[in-house]
Fold Transcriptional repressor NrdR.
Amino acid sequence: MNCPDCGNEQTRVIDTGASADGTSVRRRRECQRCSFRFTTYERPGWESLQTKKRDGTIEPFERQKLRAGIERAVEKRHVTEKTVTGLVDDIESELQDREGRIVSSSLIGELVSEKLRTLDKIAYIRFVSVYKAFAEPEEFLRELDAVLDAELDDFEASTDSQ
């Protein structure tokens, strides 16, 4: 670390501690040449997002993996390639805007579910059946009923306003 006063490269750490918010390390330094004291902050930095899986492992975020999951859900539906790209862009952008660089796979799944639910109900059902790992037909039926109930509520609301 160069001294901000004289530019000397030789500085030494005289005190170290966590920042008030706990997201960085605060270091008090002193220049070896001019004895100027200053504070630096070290924060973890990653080149890209990291995904925390259900089993606790952390791996790099893979845009192509996200895209593949969405493409499987919209397969043989009237959803264009451009729409899929826009969906992937939106989700990645939302993840990048988050404060932390590590995002849980469950958060990614929730974002995809939310976007697919408004885009295409069948694609949504396909995605959540895999994402939520339905084990029984009743779970599938409950989710389908929730989608149909929401659709019915939307229909009734639109006819009431006319």
Notes: The radius of gyration is 25 Å. Residues 11-42 form one domain. The helical segments are 63-74, 81-97, 105-119, 121-131, 137-160. The longest helix spans residues 137-160.
